[in-house]
Specification:
Elements: H1 2-13, E1 38-39, E2 44-46, E3 53-54, E4 60-63, E5 74-76, E6 83-96, H2 100-117, H3 120-141, E7 148-160, E8 170-173
Antiparallel strand pairs: 1-2, 2-3, 4-5, 4-8, 6-7
C-alpha cells in the first residue's frame, strides 16, 4: 500500500506527466494516436501534455533533443514554464538639444545694441565675448547651452525554455495561420 501511495505522489509531482485520455482528441473526441498533438479529423492542435487546444496565438515549444521522448512534440507554455534571467542593462548616450539658438539671438541683439550705442568694432567684440566666451562658462556651470548627452538605460532580460522531460533546450514555434 505504501508503494502505491509513493507512485501516486511521484505522478502528481512529475511536471511532464501526461493528462487525459491519450487516444482520444480532446477537442472533438475522435480517435487519435497516443503520441499525436494534431487531430486530422477536426484539424486542431493540442498540447502533448495537458491535451488542451492551442491556437495560432498561443506560444508553443518543441524539444530539440532527439533522445527525449518529447522530441518534436508541441507543448504549451502552461505545461513547460520558462526561466527568465536578468541581463546587464543596455546603456547608451542620447544627445539632447541645447538652448544655443535662443542664446545666439540674445547675443546678436546685445551686440547690435552695443554697436548702435558705440562703434561697430566694439559690437563685434561684444558678440565674440558673449557668444563663445560666456557660452562656454554657462555650459561649464551646468546650463545646457550647446546640448548634453543623457545616459539612457534599458533593462534586459532573457527568457529560456527547456524541455519539461529532459531539461534540454526547447525552441519556440508558431502555428501558421490559415489564409
Amino acid at each position: 500500500m505504501s508503494e502505491t501511495s509513493t507512485e501516486n505522489t511521484e505522478k502528481a509531482i512529475d511536471p511532464g506527466a501526461r493528462r487525459g485520455e491519450l487516444d482520444v482528441c480532446p477537442v472533438c473526441g475522435s480517435s487519435v494516436h497516443p503520441q499525436a498533438y494534431f487531430c486530422s479529423h477536426c484539424t486542431n492542435y493540442f498540447c502533448f501534455i495537458c491535451r488542451s487546444r492551442v491556437t495560432s496565438s498561443d506560444v508553443l515549444l518543441q524539444c530539440v533533443n532527439r533522445d527525449c521522448e518529447y522530441f518534436g512534440k508541441m507543448v504549451c507554455t502552461q505545461c513547460d514554464l520558462s526561466q527568465t534571467t536578468e541581463e546587464q542593462p543596455f546603456l547608451y548616450k542620447e544627445p539632447t538639444d541645447g538652448y544655443w539658438p535662443a542664446w545666439l539671438l540674445v547675443c546678436v541683439l546685445l551686440s547690435i545694441y552695443v554697436t548702435w550705442q558705440t562703434t561697430f568694432l566694439l559690437g563685434g567684440l561684444a558678440f565674440l565675448a558673449l557668444y563663445p566666451g560666456l557660452s562656454y562658462l554657462l555650459q561649464a556651470a551646468g546650463l545646457n547651452i550647446f546640448g548634453k548627452e543623457r545616459s539612457v538605460e534599458f533593462p534586459r532580460s532573457k527568457t529560456e525554455y527547456s524541455c519539461v522531460r529532459c531539461a534540454q533546450a526547447a525552441k519556440l514555434i508558431t502555428l501558421s495561420q490559415k489564409t
